[in-house]
Design a protein that fits this description.
The structure is a single chain. By secondary structure, the protein is an alpha/beta fold. The chain is built from nine helices and eight strands. Strands 7-6-5-4-3-2-1-8 form an eight-stranded parallel sheet. Helix 4 crosses helix 5 and helix 6 runs parallel beside helix 7.
């Protein structure tokens, strides 16, 4: 697997999707998902200019990040358990998978302890899948301002993982729903939210066409993981 070739191909496809959507390519961030890949893969991508990386599990991040090049930014993109919030706050630059007021409150508590303000995204289960984590849209709207009031939390937007389909067009309606929900949140907040984290290796171009600002790409960049994985856990 040639990471350099894949990286350039992904950058080209991002640029082409932005052109179709009449968007500035600078408004879309590539988040390299390193789940199942070691610090050598991180270093290879960093050498190509990649700066933003994502991990699904706190423990994997704790072991990998210290062995990876410095000056990189790391997002926690998987489901976060409350008992892992302390470590997550310390090692990640953003936590994307916040799916309850209780979890946001625990993140706030741990951030206060280390005098850190923690950027977060709220994860939304737009399709209502029982197998997936994430807010129901109505619950998110009901709790939105309570989360925003937490002093060590910075709300930066929303994220989602749509149902897996071999046809990327099937993801479009869920990306549209997330974008519409972000607009409702912005109305409540009275201010813009900068990020929509949506789209992975199979559907990131559709996500960009529908407004994604962060696309989470693992397999298309690094190839298959080194251990068995869930097909669509987070790319």
């Amino acid at each position: 697997m040639d990471i350099a070739v894949n990286f350039e191909m992904i950058r080209r496809r991002i640029a082409e999707a932005c052109a179709r959507a009449k968007r500035d390519v600078a408004d879309v961030q590539l988040l390299a998902v390193t789940k199942g890949h070691g610090p050598d893969a991180v270093a290879a991508a960093a050498d190509l200019g990649q700066k933003l990386f994502g991990e699904n599990k706190v423990q994997e991040g704790k072991s990998k990040i210290p062995l990876s090049p410095g000056r990189l930014r790391w997002h926690m993109i998987g489901h976060l358990q409350s008992n892992k919030c302390r470590d997550a706050v310390q090692i990640f630059d953003m936590i994307e998978g916040v799916d309850s007021l209780a979890l946001a409150a625990e993140i706030n508590k741990q951030a206060e302890k280390v005098a850190k303000t923690m950027p977060i995204l709220l994860e939304v289960n737009v399709a209502g899948e029982s197998s997936k984590f994430g807010y129901k849209p109505d619950t998110l709207l009901a709790e939105f301002m309570q989360i925003n009031a937490l002093p060590k939390i910075e709300l930066h937007g929303l994220m989602t993982v749509p149902p897996y389909s071999p046809n990327p067009e099937r993801s479009r309606e869920y990306f549209q729903q997330l974008r519409a929900l972000k607009m409702k949140c912005e109305e409540i907040l009275g201010a813009p939210l900068p990020h929509l984290s949506m789209g992975m290796s199979g559907d990131f171009e559709i996500a960009i066409e529908e407004g994604a600002t962060i696309v989470r790409i693992g397999a298309a960049l690094f190839g298959p993981r080194s251990y068995a994985k869930n097909k669509r856990e987070s790319d």
